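Hey, resending since the last one bounced:
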Amino acid sequence: MASRSHVESTARIRRRVKAKAATRAALKAVIMDKSVAPDRRFAAQLKLAAMPRTSSATRIRNRCIITGRTRGVYRKFGISRIMLREMAAEGLIPGVHKASW
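The structure tokens again:
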């Protein structure tokens, strides 16, 4: 199980990304718009660079919602491969069952 601080850090980053998403999108739109004056685009670029790094969506790390494990996490379920196997074997995930042929 992941340490509590890592899980809380990831949650904190998710909150910051959500809070700053609109601002980042607006700045990126100005930067990509070729019809905007170059000095205004450059100012937007500087503002974007001045924002906290943890407000970028690429800083989010996928974690298992049960154990906090970072590796082998299935996006569809939000849980790690280990928990997926255990829960599927116990019949806790609807529509998922062990293959047999």
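The longest strand covers residues 73-74.

Sorry for the duplicate.
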